[in-house]
Amino acid sequence: MARISADCICVEFPIWNPSRRSLKSTVLRATTGGRLARETSTLVLVQALADLSFEFSRGDRIGLVGHNGSGKTTLLRVLSGIYEPVRGQLSVNGRVSSLLDLSLGMDREATGFENIVLRGVLLGLTPSAIQSKVDEIAEFSELGDYLSMPIRTYSSGMLLRLAFAVSTSVAPEILLLDEWLSVGDAGFRDKAERRLLEMIESSAIVVLASHDESLIKRFCSRMLRLEHGRSVSGLQPIS
Amino acid sequence: MPARLQHAVQDLADGARAYHIWGRLGWQDILQRYRRSLLGPFWITISAAAMIGGIGFLYSQLLHQQTEQYVPFLAVGMLVWFFLAALINDSCVVFTSAEQFIKQVKLPLTVHVWRLVWRNLIVFGHNILILVPVFIYYRVSVGPSALLGLAGVMLLAINGFIFGIVLGLVCARFRDVPPIVANLVQLGFFMTPVMYQTQALGRSEWIAQFNPFFHYLQIVRAPLLGLDLPVESWIYALATSGVCGLITFALFARYRARIAYWV
To answer: Are A117 and B36 in contact (CB < 8 Å)?
Structure first.
């Protein structure tokens, strides 16, 4: 049963200037009294998420809205397990797939086919599972013979097509999207949107982060507005 | 605290099981370096061979050694040293260079460490080919005891994994540790009997005895050259690995969740 529940989760990033990152100054801090107080006060903590509590359950289509830097991407990373909250309780039940960076792990010198396998492995597929999907991915990407060429020969649009085709070939239980994915030229864009909608349809929980509210209103059932890492008014239903 | 331990153990178990990920990424690392070159990964072999050939000739003169004993000794020593030094130097950047992966996709962190170990094992595998002509030319006979050398290589690989976690973690937090480590490794090369025999140290032989690098080197070098089993070195190497392993596990359990914040 897919379910996400968060209770007062906080995420803070310590920002170290070069002297903080340096071993020498850390050692010196331990040995000299005077520096201690002064240096400690220069440690900047950026509070990316503060006291967020929510509960997402099966069928929820959550829209995350907020300005740049309001914590949308950080929250998606927390949900995918990358950042573990500094404080608070988070439990995530269900297989999470995050489409944060579509082309992560792709190797420019490798062929399209090799990259399908590379991407697939990073998406959590076993090599045999990928082999069974290769034909379908190749067909969807419409790249034909180009798939046997190193992807450095691709245009950026072709590259995105391939990345999109692989990344959307697995249906997760919990789908995390950072901005709506729009790839390719007009014809391909419609096809890609259909596929993305299908994927959303078949996922138990979807969290979509965007600053485009009309988009959120179109696809989501509930909305969480973030401001400076805090929830402004909790989960709001979208009429 | 038990939750932290549990997560650390989970990471170690999942990481080891994800061999299809790190196996592929490690191999990709090698290919990436040598794609579009005619000889591919064998450039690794050639550059090591050139180094050993040059130093072998020069130092056998300098140290007044017989080339038929010195060159095989040097070749094995250098290959093991290259392996060890690369493991340590790569360890420093194992997490920082995987920043892109760590921040975008949830993988066990030890996947990145296995990738490093695997990549260096592949390089070592290419390098070891140098020994074939050297051993044939200088008539070094390799007996079944060479298998013990293989066990030594495995222990070094496990140590590479340990260094990877501990150095990767410390270097992600303190960015001036990598140059310190690089300097120590460089110094270690001269302090460790790679280019000279231990006996040449005379009364200062303790320099080698207290040097963990020497014992790591010895457990691979001695059996490959058909010398007696270096029992003492095995004991030292196993003890060092055990202690380092425990410290590393404790640090990993404590700071694993922070690594994503640090890189």
So the answer is: no
Higher pLDDT, B153 or B65: B153
Q: Is the dihedral of CA B257, B261, B262, B263 positive or negative?
A: positive
Determine the distance in angstroms separating the CA of A131 from the nearest CA of chain B, rounded to an integer: 13
The encoded tokens of residue B106 equal 């949830």
Task: Map out the domains of chain B as residue ranges.
Answer: 2-262
Domain identity same for A186 and A166 = yes
Residues A111 and A130 in one domain: yes
Sign of the torsion angle spanned by Cα atoms A180, A183, A185, A188:
negative
Q: Which pLDDT tens digit goes with each residue over A74-128?
A: 999 999 999 999 999 999 999 888 888 888 888 888 999 999 999 999 888 888 9
Of A98, A101, A126, the CB nearest to B20: A126
Domain, as residue range, for A183: 99-203
A13 interaction partners in chain B (CB closer than 8 Å): 261
CB contact under 8 A, A109 and B175: no
Structure tokens at A173: 């239980």
The alpha carbon of residue B254 is apart from the nearest alpha carbon of chain A, in Å, by 13
- CATH number, position A172: 3.40.50.300
According to the model, what pLDDT value does residue A75 have? 94
Its ipTM equals: 0.85
Q: Which of A169, A171, A203 is nearest to A2 (CA)?
A: A203
CB pairs under 8 A between A and B: 68
Q: Which residue of chain B comes nearest to A74, CA vs CA?
A: B103
Q: Is B184 touching A (CB cutoff 8 A)?
A: no
Q: Does B32 touch chain A if contact means CB atoms closer than 8 Å?
A: yes
Number of Cβ within a 10 Å radius of residue A91: 10
B152 CB neighbour count, 10 Å cutoff = 25
What's the CA gap between B15 and B8, in Å, rounded?
Answer: 10
Check whether residue A130 and residue A219 sit in a common domain: no
CA-to-CA distance for B7 and B78, rounded, in angstroms?
39
Distance, CA of B110 to CA of B22 (rounded, Å): 9
| Interface contact B260-A104, CB threshold 8 A | no
- Which of A23, A101, A121 has the CB atom closest to B21's CB atom? A121
Give the whole-angstrom CA distance, residue B15 versus residue B106. Answer: 12
Q: Tell me, yes or no, if A153 comes closer than 8 A to chain B by beta carbon.
A: no
Helix (H) or strand (E) run with residue A52 in it: strand A44-57
Q: Which of B24, B31, B102 lies nearest to residue A121, judging by beta carbons?
A: B24
Of A13, A18, A107, the CB nearest to B32: A107
pLDDT tens-digit series, residues A9-44: 999 988 877 666 777 777 776 665 554 444 455 677
**What CA–CA distances, in Å, run from A164 to A95, A103, A155, B89, B92?**
19, 8, 14, 36, 33
How many domains does one find in chain A? 2
